[in-house]
Amino acid sequence: MNNKMISSPTSLLAASPLVLAGLLMPAGASAQITDTDSSYADEEIVVTAELPRGAVITEIPPVVELSEADIASYGVSSVQDLLEAISSQTTSSRGRGSGRPVVLINGQRTSGFREIRDLPPEAIRTVQVFPEELALQYGYRPDQRVINFVLKDNYTGLSASAEYGVPTQGGQGRSEVETTITRIGQNSRLNVNVEWQNNTAITESERDIVQDAAGELVNLGDYRTLAAPSDNVELNANYSRSFDNGMSLSLNGGYVYDKSRGLQGLPGGTLNVAGDTLFRYFTEYGPLRRVQETNTAQAGLTLNGMLSDWRWSLTSDYTRTQVDTDTDRSGDTSALQAAIDAGTVDPLAVSFGPLLGAPVTDRAKVVDQTINNLATLSGTLLVLPSGAVTTTVRAGYNREDLDSRETSGAILTTTDLSRDEISAGINIDIPLADENIDVVEAIGKLSVNGNFGYSDLSDFGGLVEFGFGVNWEPLDGLVFSASAIGEDAAPTIAQLGNPLIITPNVNIFDFTNGETVLASITTGGNLALPAEKQRDIKLAVNYRPEWLDGFTFLGEYFRNNSDNVASSFPLLTPEIEAAFPDRVTRDTNGRLIAIDQRPVTYANVYSERIRYGIDFSKRFGQESGGGRGRPERAAPPPQPSGEGAAEGRPEGGPPPEGGANTERQTPGRRRRPWRPCRWKAKRRTLAALRLSHHPSGGQDQDPRRRRGTGPAERFRHRFDRRQPAARIRDQWRLVQQWHRLPPQRRAPDRDPRQWRPHRFRPALFRSDHV
């Protein structure tokens, strides 16, 4: 049997099978290309393409991908609610950082989560969640997952909602009013959200909690809150615009006001009566209160653009938070004690007048200001035979100022801390097996990456971070990855410089004595905290079989090792008390009266975790017209007229061999429409939206705009001129014909699913089967 091969171009860059299929649809004839067409043998075809809207340039597969239907199935009213619903998949398992993912909008960096928080889910086309390794490519830390929101091109919405909830048997009531305005255009986006929320109090008496016998005499539960009443007002506004030169600008501003009013019980004191101690509460001044008021103002700016073939990004974010706290504590009882000793006052009286000192209010004011600036530049550093080496270079400047003022009685304490941080880093991804087809066929796709960064802190000195990793895809849809990171981390400025606050009469369970007591709690900063050393390892496997659409398996192993870990004070147990004896105060009877809960340092923290999960989603049934996302099969293209049309070949082309009818179909059986999105090339990030002849600078290759009156005229003109677009269309048509053949008639070693967009595969099938 005489088998003929399809000649392949020397190189083809950045093409997408979906777009190539679209270019074929208007074609009016099919053609065969063999090695006899020598003019194609050495011709170089370069495809110039634009990325699809919202694409993330990476070879790392997403761990979660939600379509519009998937998003709607959660029944949420905002992006914030959506992230809460899928928090188990968006939260990093490395055990570092805040856990909140890095947010991208249409594949571009943002100034923060505020830009996407209040968007309605109906405005989102796709949600993609990527593992922590992708964060490095955008200049972020490798302990955050990356979530990309692809928005719809045109959307306008106005929503308003009101909620009220209350338990049927008493408790905390909740009221909320919210309105959102959203407008998304082709090149702009506007989103404004206003929200008010109120929560009522829950007292101890509503939960039948009795502190002690003295408290039961005065109904102390009515003067202590388990959940303080609060009011919250939020305003958030976002505006984004894209320009014709490829740049995009995003502005964000927000304001949050929050106020809580808690009850700390009644003033109390211990009196000495006839040689015995008597503890009692005083009701004449009412309950002790703790009022906290928080004002937060935020602003953000993001600029994205292209510099030649390099993508640059600038982000700046400013936040100012002011917290005012007023805490009441019991007044002076020395005058009352003197009157009791003199026998002029009954210690069990209801009121003592001026003998009992009024409660004293301690006031604390904290102003925290932060500004974060980060610039990144990413692109192709060089091109190896195995593929393009990409790199991301980042540089940033951060500043934080913490000013606190605390008044306790006649003592005034002020704290003024500031930190300047200058950082720089680089991340490099090197493909070892990607575009070198022979190596890929032998071992699969393989790439390595490494990163290094240095930060200089004005109050801590230099800190180093580094990491490296490997990604291996031996089979389509099966990806193994391994990474290791090391970092020196400084305590936060809040852990170092928060003001000293003593809160009296806090409900604490004493594990040593097995009783619940009211103790004074000390909170604030600790200036003696050292730097933390982190060393982490991650192994992961991601499997998406092509034969089971919608199925994903993700397994991850984490090992974290840290030295000198700064942490808040843990739950007081006998073991913790033995480790930190100076943090616990007891009276002469061994009763717990005070705990110092300022941050402490752990010598070493070690953990190992295994995380795995299976995600499977499938749409059952089929709607009329082919079902959602599966349109009816298009009618066969019209056959060209003129010479050679009867044999289904262009004028001057070689006659077909074998005479096989590729449109044959079993009677009574509907042929499943061929969908190029199932191919491996669908997951390639460099997808073509338009084709142009290189190096002509973007000549129009659309055959419908060429001269000629009918499909045959246009087809012959395109074929005879040997245009690159014709070459691509002809090869793609042969791939379609291969797919329509029965399995027993296909060349077993020429599966078109191995076709890659950057280079055509030779000999997709035996020419005698066409």
How is this structure best described in words?
The protein is mostly beta strands and 770 residues long. A hairpin with a 2-residue loop joins strand 2 (102-105) and strand 3. It contains 12 helices and 31 strands. Residues 1-41, 623-724 and 748-770 have low confidence and may be disordered. It is elongated and about 110 Å long. The strands form 6 sheets. Strands 6-7-8-11-12-15-16-17-18-19-20-21-22-25-26-29 form a 16-stranded antiparallel sheet. A 5-stranded mixed sheet has the order 1-4-5-2-3. 11% of the residues lie in helices and 43% in strands.
Can you tag this structure with a few keywords?
elongated, mainly beta, 31 strands, 16-stranded antiparallel β-sheet, 770 residues, single chain, 11% helix, 12 helices, disordered N terminus, five-stranded mixed β-sheet
Secondary structure layout plus pairing:
Blueprint: H1 17-24, E1 64-66, H2 68-73, H3 79-85, H4 87-90, E2 102-105, E3 108-109, H5 114-117, E4 124-130, E5 146-151, E6 155-165, E7 174-184, E8 188-199, E9 202-203, H6 213-217, E10 225-227, E11 230-242, E12 248-263, E13 268-273, E14 276-281, E15 289-307, E16 310-329, H7 334-342, E17 360-384, E18 387-408, E19 411-433, H8 437-443, E20 445-457, E21 461-475, E22 478-489, H9 493-497, E23 501-510, E24 515-523, E25 532-543, E26 551-567, H10 574-579, E27 584-586, E28 592-596, E29 600-616, E30 692-693, E31 699-700, H11 711-720, H12 724-740
Helix pairs in contact: 1-12
